[in-house]
Amino acid sequence: MPGLKIRLFYKEKFMLCGIIGAMPKEVEAIKDKMLNIKEENIQGVDFYFGKINNQDVILTKSGVGKVNASIITTLMIMTYHPDYIVNIGTAGGMLKEQNTLDIVISENVIQHDFDTSYIDGKSGIGITTKSDELLRNKVKESFLKNKVDSNIYFGDIISGDVFVGEEVKVLELKEKFPTAIACEMEAAAIGYTCDKFNIPFIIIRSLSDIVHHDNSNIDFMKNVEITSKRSADMLEEFLK
């Protein structure tokens, strides 16, 4: 079975954490924290098996967008059977009081570009998936215990196959999804796929840009490496 030879390398039975990032910088930030890395290529996708804080982890890059995220999440689950999955990386903030490098943690993830309202009414707007309560509580516990140098927001993260970079679009999305605290392009697809396979999940992202602020597009390009590292730092604390 693909992936089995890597997992048998470890004799101890730790919970296996699956980690998915969308972009190379997000994945590299996690790899920098891993020990005893073993690499395997499945269907053209690179997976990295190793340890962070003595916890077994399996890491991969999904690529951008909901379709890529769903495919890679399914491949990870079917091949390596992780006990839970964490999606890390960057996101755009949707609250005026937020700042770049703040951390956002999912309560729910919502596919904001899913819309069958023409036939289903309001119930056809968005698909919502709830993240795991135990994992959310563990993140809160880690944040309080380790006093991470960042503001942290718990709430709904919305995903769609479009990069949201204009304030008018954010205001439209906030009107549809008033509980949204951040927007990106993969989390809701990862969460929905995990839910279908009965795998607990949590989203841990760092804000690279706030569209309400000036120079938001410049902030994203400038901060993506910094925010990837910040998200990885939060994951490392969580895995303790």
From TrEMBL:
The keyword Hydrolase applies. This is adenosylhomocysteine nucleosidase. The lineage of its organism: Bacteria, Bacillati, Bacillota, Tissierellia, Tissierellales. GO terms for biological process: L-methionine salvage from methylthioadenosine; L-methionine salvage from S-adenosylmethionine; nucleoside catabolic process. Pathway: Amino-acid biosynthesis; L-methionine biosynthesis via salvage pathway; S-methyl-5-thio-alpha-D-ribose 1-phosphate from S-methyl-5'-thioadenosine (hydrolase route): step 1/2. GO terms for cellular component: cytosol. Gene3D superfamilies: Nucleoside phosphorylase domain (3.40.50.1580). Its EC number is 3.2.2.9. InterPro entries: MTA_SAH_Nsdase (IPR010049), Nucleoside_phosphorylase_d (IPR000845), Nucleoside_phosphorylase_sf (IPR035994). One of its GO terms (molecular function) is methylthioadenosine nucleosidase activity. Residues 18-240 form the Nucleoside phosphorylase domain. It is an enzyme of class 3 (hydrolase). The keyword Lyase does not apply. Keywords: Amino-acid biosynthesis, Glycosidase, Hydrolase, Methionine biosynthesis. It comes from the Bacteria.
